[in-house]
């Protein structure tokens, strides 16, 4: 399967500006102020969460329950259609997992079939993509009961995830306090790994990075990125409850810093997130630098797909969270968790220090992956002590 070229993406700021029109206090000015339905929703008890974060949380009319719902979709980025479907499903579910929700009641699949595909390719590729999506949903304890399929210039894959929750089943992403520790549950660098793999067949591109990485290392990093993106964040969601997490988000298209800023802006307390450590798939930092910082990887704005959870935890719980994440991960060099920063008093923004510590995460199956990885220690950097 060849990876289709997606149209240019607008900036994070531009997207959030567009979404602002959905905010209740900015909606259609012609809406009647006395709209009874609107007044009813505002009077419902319980927390609600809207535009700008991972999920919407809507209090229901009955029994103190809330509907938690999310949707996401994107363009293919790996060659294996089965894995692409799996990654798409994991990416959708991550929005629920970021709120500590471990169960999903229902999923819908959104699928756009490219009008450029011939019959043979379509009949081979699309069923595999659907199967990957469905298998990941089943692993997450849910099922796909429908969706929408259209013809489009580009392949697009995604879905909708919905669950009805009691208050104790989810963690609102607004409770970080000064002294908390920031933990990340998957390494960064998936976009770099995917692009580097495509460049193996593009001499002009490959010549820019061949001095810092071998073809075998690129292939290993690509496999690691696929495995990471296709891994559900369900384990981390469960551990958020066990270790009293105060807030979390998943790291996707806006990059680590973009999503950290979004999360910081949601906090009830006046806090700031300071990131000291960056766990990155091995060799991806070198590739990014060799490309003239094309991806802004170290700056934290490199896009990720189905990335890890960024979790705010009490300092005394962070190391135990990381240790249990690692013990529950399968495979040599598998995903664990890394302490990457702190929460301090501030102005609800996030920043990465000037010279962050780069934690090289070896791909599973590589020689380096079999060595003991100490990145989950309680104090991976003097800056966090």
Written overview of the protein:
There is one protein chain. Residues 1-5, 26-45 and 372-383 have low confidence and may be disordered. It is built from 11 helices and 11 strands. The chain is globular, with a radius of gyration of 21 Å. By secondary structure, the chain is of the alpha+beta class. It has a 6-stranded mixed β-sheet with strand order 7-9-6-10-8-11. Strands 1-2-5-3-4 form a 5-stranded mixed β-sheet, with helices on one face. It catalyses: hydrogenselenide + ATP + H2O = selenophosphate + AMP + phosphate + 2 H(+). Residues 356-385 are annotated as: Disordered. Its EC number is 2.7.9.3. Residues 178-352 form the PurM-like C-terminal domain.
Q: Which short descriptors sum up this protein?
A:
6-stranded mixed beta sheet, 385 residues, disordered N terminus, 5-stranded mixed beta sheet, selenium, 11 strands, alpha+beta, disordered C terminus
